[in-house]
Specification:
By secondary structure, this protein is an alpha+beta fold. It has helices at 6-24, 27-55, 58-95, 99-102, 155-158, 161-245, 249-261, 318-343, 380-383, 393-399, and strands at residues 272-278, 283-290, 299-305, 310-315, 351-361, 368-379, 403-404. Helix 1 packs parallel to helix 7 (249-261), helix 2 packs antiparallel against helix 3 (58-95) and helix 6 (161-245) crosses helix 7 (249-261). It is elongated. 23% of the residues are buried.
Length: 425
């Protein structure tokens, strides 16, 4: 059985974005988004009105309450409309499963997957790009200056003044020496602290440079790794293209995986595949698994009932729900056949043996089981004559001689006992 390989995954990401862009261009999608935005706007308006009512004075309270109540009704109404828009979008997607793929070319140009140039993110050093700044130089206090006492004059110098003057000079010198020594010691400590901080920052910057060099080397290694991976990717792609050209069975199988991975279904109706290919008969055997009937909402729409302050669902009639699920199953079958044949321009695949089934818990055993809903076979030449834009899917499958479930919604298995033959063989 095939798996989604490297090329399929790569192409899936690119193609899914394009197909979602096409879906978003649809009017129903725009209506859905508009309804959601209106619901958000109305709810915010209600919140503002409720907050204003809480702040209002007694005289203003009644009017504020009436405004808040009106905003609440508008918000709930908008919420119901948004729910209806979501539902309408889902129903449009389900009813248009086949039509949505007809205007898309399912061919995959494998050369478009080649990596022409490798884009490297810019190197971001972050904080490592900023050098550690040096510490500000110390601002030393001014050096103490010696101030000699004034010499005695007049009578003060005649009566013992000279001795007192000499003592004053000695005292001034001693005081100056003490102050100068303290100043030198303080400056020495400031210089030592500055030198230590300068050395610490020098080492920190040296460490930063080493880390920056290491980060740059890691970046260069990552760039080289991206280059190596791109080269390996391109070599594998070249081998893939070459193998496909020479009918290597595994390459054809992988190409089918690429095509199937591109088929974008609604999130609520996801589809999975398993397939195998026989080169001798050039027949693709393809098993498609669809969601069970619970994927179809049981609701037709919603309405807000003011008296109950509730959003009330309107039931979708059982007949309509059954028809929508069955039609979705028939469309999946035709869509899958179309996508494979259209994508296979080189006509590697001549015929497809297709089964569409869903999973359930068997009511009799309680164990998981697969319920076949469609078993069909189609050859390229016959299928290529159909104008799928104007067919009724169920009628087309009957025309192909498919075995179909009588009631897919009720999980009535298709009768697979007799098998299916391709018409025209």
């Amino acid at each position: 059985m095939a798996r989604r390989g490297f090329f399929a995954e790569l192409n899936y990401q690119a193609q899914q974005a394009e197909k979602r862009r096409r879906q978003q261009a649809a009017a129903a999608y725009r209506a859905q988004v508009a309804a959601q935005r209106e619901a958000e706007r109305a709810y915010k308006a209600y919140q503002r009105a409720a907050a204003a009512a809480a702040r209002a004075s007694a005289a203003e309270h009644a009017e504020a309450q009436r405004l808040a109540a009106r905003m609440h009704v508008e918000a709930r109404t908008a919420e119901a409309e948004a729910m209806n828009a979501d539902l309408a979008q889902l129903f449009e997607d389900l009813d248009g499963l086949l039509a949505s793929t007809l205007d898309v070319d399912d061919y995959v140009d494998l050369e478009s997957l080649r990596i022409r140039s490798v884009e490297h993110p810019p190197f971001d050093a972050g904080p490592l790009s900023r050098p550690v700044p040096p510490p500000p130089p110390p601002v030393y206090p001014p050096e103490p200056q010696y101030q000699e006492p004034a010499a005695p004059t007049g009578l003060s110098g005649a009566f013992g003044g000279k001795k007192r003057y000499e003592e004053a000079i000695a005292q001034a010198r001693a005081t100056h020496e003490t102050a100068h020594r303290a100043w030198r010691e303080h400056c020495a400590r400031m210089h030592a602290g500055y030198s230590a901080e300068l050395e610490r920052r020098r080492k920190a910057d040296q460490d930063r440079v080493q880390k920056l060099d290491a980060a740059e080397e890691i970046y260069r290694q990552e760039c080289r790794q991206r280059e190596v991976e791109a080269e390996a990717h391109n070599q594998n792609l070249s081998q893939f293209i070459n193998n496909l050209a020479f009918d290597v069975e595994s390459a054809i199988r992988d190409y089918v995986a690429v095509v199937l991975s591109n088929s974008v279904y609604p999130d609520a109706f996801s589809v999975t595949y398993e397939h195998s290919f026989d080169i001798s008969s050039r027949e693709l055997t393809l098993q498609v698994t669809v969601p069970d009937p619970s994927a179809i909402p049981a609701v037709r729409g919603y309405r807000y009932v003011k008296a109950k302050d509730e959003i009330v669902p309107t039931a979708l009639p059982a007949k309509e729900r059954k028809e929508r699920y069955a039609n979705a199953v028939w469309q999946v079958a035709l869509r899958t056949l179309h996508e494979i044949f259209e994508a296979d321009r080189a006509a590697k695949i001549r015929s497809i043996a297709l089964s569409v089934s869903t999973d359930r818990t068997a009511p009799a055993t309680g164990r998981p089981e697969e319920v076949p809903l469609v078993v069909a076979a189609a050859d390229r030449d016959t299928f290529g004559t159909f104008d799928l834009a104007h067919v009724v899917p169920h009628a087309t499958l009957v025309h192909l001689g498919a075995t179909l479930s009588k009631s897919p919604f009720d999980l009535t298995p298709a009768d697979t006992s007799a098998g299916v033959r391709i018409r025209g063989r």
